[in-house]
Write a structure and sequence with these properties.
This protein is α/β, with parallel strands linked by helices. The chain is built from twelve helices and 21 strands. Among the domains are: 74 residues, Dna Ligase, domain 1, CATH 3.30.1490.110; 156 residues, 2-Layer Sandwich (Nucleotidyltransferase, domain 5). 34% of the residues lie in helices and 32% in strands. A hairpin with a 2-residue loop joins strand 9 and strand 10.
Length: 402
């Protein structure tokens, strides 16, 4: 029987603050016990801009999750995002003290430190160093060099880093609620935990998580992380474009996007109108459906073009055998898959958390992919997955505590 643990994933997003209480097993099975959610205040582009408001939202979401799961929350795993988060690939190399000596955990830690010995802005912090490949005396395809004999150990890592103070602000929001942050994880890595299976990671896949204020993306090739990034563009950009283009209040633009919007062009009847009824402070209006769809289509096309541009020189697109997975709240927009396929010229799937049990309204909703993924990531770290076994040091670096 696989050992079960309770983990809480927390996402402080632009449009919502979400907390997921999950029962996780070492075999990867996840059962949702409760999901707490509240509209987000004090957050813009995935980053804290009003500390007090954001802290109150965190408190409300955690309280909601406690009530629904009937479990007292004392610790959480926190997802982070923002366009300050960047990544690159780097190789570390270590010569063994004795030619033909045995590789130990010391050499494996040292080769990771070597890969991280790069010049970063002094305000930045390494969040993740994810193993890609090991090499022993030039031998490729080494999965675990521990115990092997050799004279030289090399390893490729995917390094993700961000601005220390911006990450620390998110952590402090949680600590204000007398909750301990066990660790942090970038949104894209969390989402991939529940959106992709092992076969898709091996075949090659791009996950694009489009939220309210940012778009996080991550690429897997041959089972390892090859590239990742964050764009400061999300659903709020579409809403803002609709508000300006159709000259309607931002709240009506958001409602119009969700209820009537589509990214597919040429399917509306000539001159077809959408009637916006009178409301407080708004006298009502008729808008052209095709114009609404054009605004949505244009912004989404631009977004996907930016993501594709970020892959140039980093990922050979023909190797993405499993195609592209869209998730996040913005993936619910009608016709978004067709726009993505036209830009990337490859199969696109709309997806949500997989292999999860519990309230279907939560795990089948792509809005919760990141938060559920954080809980599953927590279990992966606790199970000491090789590529993530050193991540528990992150929080001490952020807080400066031993």
């Amino acid at each position: 029987m696989a050992r079960e643990e309770i983990h809480v994933g927390l996402e402080i997003g632009t449009s919502k603050v979400c907390a997921v209480v999950a029962e996780c097993r070492e075999d990867g099975e996840v059962k949702l016990l409760g999901v707490g959610e509240t509209p987000s205040r004090g957050v813009r582009k995935g980053e804290i801009i009003d500390f007090e408001n954001a802290s109150n939202c965190v408190r409300d979401a955690l309280s909601d999750a406690e009530e629904k799961s009937e479990i007292e929350i004392k610790n959480v795993w926190l997802s982070v995002t923002g366009n300050h988060i960047q990544s690159f690939n780097n190789r570390g190399s270590v010569a063994l003290p004795e030619e033909g000596g045995e590789i130990t955990e010391d050499e494996m830690q040292e080769v990771e430190l070597q890969a991280k010995e790069i010049s970063l802005p002094k305000e930045n912090l390494i969040l993740h160093s994810i193993i890609q490949h090991y090499y022993v005396d030039g031998q490729q395809g080494v999965l675990n060099p521990l115990g092997m004999l050799g004279g030289k150990l090399e390893a490729d890592f995917h390094i993700i880093h961000g601005v220390r103070t911006r990450i620390k602000n998110a952590v402090r929001c949680v600590k204000e609620c007398d909750i301990v942050v066990e660790d942090v994880v970038v949104n894209s890595l969390a989402s991939a935990q529940v959106v992709l299976d092992r076969h898709q990671k091996e075949a090659g896949a791009l996950v694009v998580d489009i939220g309210g204020g940012v778009t996080d993306y991550i690429v897997y090739l041959d089972g390892v992380v090859r590239h990742s990034g964050v764009l400061a563009v999300g659903g709020d950009h579409i809403t803002n474009d609709i508000s300006i283009g159709l000259r309607i209040p931002i709240t009506r633009a958001e409602k119009l996007k969700i209820e009537e919007g589509s990214a597919v062009l040429g399917k509306s009847l000539p001159g077809e109108k959408i009637v916006l009824k009178n409301d407080t402070g708004f006298s009502g209006k008729e808008v052209e459906r095709e114009m609404l769809n054009l605004i949505i289509h244009s912004r989404l096309k631009e977004l996907f073009e930016h993501v594709r541009k970020g892959l140039v020189g980093e990922v050979p697109e023909p190797l993405l055998g499993a195609g592209i997975m869209l998730t996040g709240g913005c993936s619910l927009i009608r016709g978004i898959r067709e726009v993505a396929e036209s830009v990337f010229d490859m199969p696109v799937q709309l997806t949500h958390a997989q292999d999860v049990s519990g309230p279907t309204s939560a795990f089948k909703n792509p809005r919760f992919s990141t938060c559920i993924g954080v809980a599953k990531y927590a279990q992966a770290v606790r199970s000491e997955m090789p590529q993530e076994s050193l991540f528990t040091k992150i929080l001490r670096k952020i807080t400066g505590k031993n």
